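Technical annex, item 7. During the second reporting period the consortium partners agreed on a shared format for inverse folding records so that results from different sites could be compared directly. Each record opens with the tokenized structure and is followed by the designed sequence. A conforming record, contributed by the partner at site C, is shown below for reference.
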């Protein structure tokens, strides 16, 4: 099975985590994003870089962010 076949049903394939985070921040803002996903790096002195570092090391948090992104995109 080729790599393309493996990823054809993955809606996040080819989308960078940074792009996902920036889209969420643009849509919700840091405060509302922190209310939707209770992660300290979204609530206290948030930056894209610090949030990316945390999300890359924390699979459960990354999953929540990706799920919220998919929910946001499906509503558009």
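Designed sequence (site C submission):
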């Amino acid at each position: 099975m080729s790599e393309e076949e493996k990823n054809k049903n993955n809606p996040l394939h080819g989308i960078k985590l940074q792009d996902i985070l920036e889209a969420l921040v643009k849509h919700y803002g840091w405060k509302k994003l922190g209310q939707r996903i209770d992660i300290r790096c979204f609530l206290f002195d948030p930056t894209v870089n610090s949030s990316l570092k945390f999300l890359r090391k924390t699979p459960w948090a990354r999953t929540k962010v990706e799920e919220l992104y998919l929910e946001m995109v499906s509503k558009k």
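The mean pLDDT is 89. The CA atoms of residues 19 and 58 lie 18 Å apart. All partners now use this format for quarterly exchanges.
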